[in-house]
Specification:
By secondary structure, the protein is mostly helical. Helices cover 73% and strands 1% of the residues. The N and C termini lie close together (7 Å). The relative contact order is 0.11.
Length: 320
């Protein structure tokens, strides 16, 4: 599901996201030559969900608001920067069916490109001149970084509890969706308590989104996902399907996860998790968070509520 195929159902947002992409391409053009020529990930956008969450929370729909579109672009730049850095940290070989940036251009260039995008994201966010906006973005970046630091420090430990898992995915994924909704609501004139409610909407969606991604890492294929499958197991990162299996006391999985050769056993662990239906159980938990997101939206009053809910429903059972 790419930018074109998803947003044909939402023509007003397809147009607005094209404007956001224009801001992003301007950033690419400003980048130093070595970085510019390697930022193909920004020239071929993904689903642009986070920018859409900014705009939908602001309720702008058909209207034009340059500040909102700039902040939406800033959020997408933040997201892209984290992807580039994640691929370096996780040694991922591909992204969106293309070689990862660090594979094509080297680790140094990839790290610098991510840093460049972080700085341009803050620059775009500050241009909106909205009180507290840059502070919120900075807090979001800190949450993301802290989550990555915690995960990296315990790499190889498959025996974590659910609380630790949910804390990690809040920072890793949900925070940026939550931030998108909060800054959109602020730009749309929401009161503080309304902005908090939008934040929870984004947080619940982000948790559901990450759980589905973690399930796909067991069920999916590299052709559908555009990135390697089973990477989390290979990298020593436990996700919800595995956590549920260990909670359930699956002795074969526990034995494999304690083995010194556990990284080499990723295929066997995946098969055992799927055989036990732990992917299905994780998917049910993810669906509960998605429903909480929809329930939260239903309680809010803003211009594009029905479109937002339709989008959340449309994103069920994604392939990528």
């Amino acid at each position: 599901m790419n930018l074109h195929s998803l947003w044909t159902s939402f023509p007003s947002y397809q147009k607005k996201l094209s404007e956001v992409q224009g801001h992003i391409l301007s950033v690419v053009e400003e980048a130093p030559g070595l970085i510019n020529e390697n930022l193909g990930i920004l020239k071929t956008p993904g689903k642009m969900l986070r920018p859409a969450f900014v705009m939908m929370s602001a309720g702008i729909g058909q209207d034009t608001d340059k500040n909102v579109s700039k902040v939406a672009a800033a959020v997408e730049l933040l997201h892209t920067a984290t992807l580039i850095h994640d691929d370096v940290i996780d040694a991922s070989s591909s992204r969106r069916n293309n070689p990862a940036l660090h594979v094509r251009a080297g680790i140094k260039t990839a790290v610098l490109a991510g840093d460049f995008l972080f700085s341009k994201a803050l620059e775009l966010a500050s241009s909106a001149n909205s009180e507290g906006l840059v502070g919120a973005v900075n807090k979001g970046i800190a949450e993301i970084c802290m989550s990555e630091i915690e995960q990296d420090s315990e790499q190889g430990n498959y025996f974590i509890d659910r609380e630790t898992y949910f804390r990690r995915i809040h920072g890793k994924t949900a925070e940026l969706f939550a931030l998108s909704c909060r800054v959109g609501a602020v730009l749309g004139g929401a009161e503080p308590e309304e902005a908090d409610a939008f934040y929870e909407v984004g947080r619940n969606f982000g948790i559901a989104f990450q759980i589905e991604d973690d399930v796909l890492d067991y069920r999916g294929s590299v052709q559908k996902l555009g990135k390697p499958v089973g990477n989390d197991l290979k990298d020593g990162i436990p996700t919800l399907p595995l956590i549920l299996a260990i909670e359930d006391g699956d002795s074969k999985i526990i034995k494999m996860c304690r083995s010194k050769g556990r990284y080499l056993l990723k295929t066997q662990i995946r098969k055992r998790v799927l055989k036990g239906g732990y992917d299905e159980r994780a998917a049910v938990i993810g669906e509960e968070y998605r429903q909480a997101c929809i329930d939260g939206l239903s309680k809010l009053e803003f211009a594009d509520k029905e479109i937002f809910i339709e989008l959340i429903n449309k994103l069920r059972h994604r392939d990528t």
